[in-house]
Amino acid sequence: MSASCIGIVADDLTGGAAIAGEIARPGQPVPVIRLEKTCPLPAQTLVVETSSRYMPGAQAAARVEQAVSRLQQAGFTLLMKKIDSTLKGNVATELAAFARATAGRVVIVAACPTMQISVREGWQWKAAEKGVDVAGLVGDALGWRPDVLPLATVREGKTAVSAWFRQHASPVIVADAESQRDIQQLVDGARQAGIDGFAGVYGLGQALAGLSEPAMPPPPDGAHRLLVMSGSTSRANMAQIDWLVAQGAEAITIDVAALCGEQHRSEMARLSAAIAASRSPVVLLHTDAKNSAAVVREVCRARGWNDRDLAQALAAPFAEAVRQLPQAGLFLVGGETTGALFDLQGWQTLRVNGEFSATVSIARVPATQHPAIFTKPGAFGAETVLHDVARWLLPHL
């Protein structure tokens, strides 16, 4: 196996697909493979997805260690742990597990310039607002505080970064960064110092692959419809949905209280009939998070559900839509939403061919008729991104 092949561990599908999308090139797709898929891993850059973001900590750690072990047994030496850009889920626990499993030095890059997220003095900042003490968060899980690579050293270039790593023996390092150039410099310096373990968010994959910018494949032929499915409650996604509907998409709203209660069968029948009756080229199936947030919170509170539990409940109407529209392009929004649908469909691999825009991957699921499957984390993307994808996939729109 080439030493440049990257073995990536991701805690959800859309996050893993976002990293795959920034690395994939024409003729060089990057597969996102679910941990449960037991076939031998191919000798190419790939993502192993653990679905562990909302699992109990010990279970999440075990799945990360299992994923790293599979990658190492397959011959991967350059490893990356994908984490949530806002540090949601079992971030610290999974990073500690990743560090143990790799048994080498690990550099944590929690900056995401695309989202205006930077790291300074070991703290994550969103625009001008100070956020999480990344070094402290990870240190709590490790039992000791990792060293912090200063931004001033990063700005001196990869030679200075390499020298800094040689002078500081900490097995886990949190790196300051503000820009994509910063990330590239610190990655190059770390590699020069012999470091093969990295953890971070969107932007790190591109730097590890040594690429200047992501690639967009050409639109697939023969696409006539797009089915957008969203379980995300992020404000960004609400604005994207509003824009899509304003451009003429047909919106079908899931009544979450009915779906999760005694009216489950009648709600499924209503949704199935609405999907069957739809003739619009762009169909949106969603929870109308902007107007149903309080109801959804109460449903989850009453049942003790987290985001993953809710996504599994939503998977049934999403799967029904996929069944009725087997040749439509799919746009799946939200990591737990996407994972739950894959669980129900029995899909084990997402083959990512590139990206439409930052974090919006363009992919296929083998052995399905869907001409393209787009995924994105809920909080990412411009207000127009859902409609922009529809216009790209459906030129006649």
From TrEMBL:
It comes from the Bacteria. GO terms for molecular function: ATP binding; kinase activity. Signal peptide: none annotated. Residues 6-116 form the Four-carbon acid sugar kinase N-terminal domain. It holds the Pfam family SBD_N. Keywords: ATP-binding, Carbohydrate metabolism, Kinase, Nucleotide-binding, Transferase. This is Four-carbon acid sugar kinase family protein.
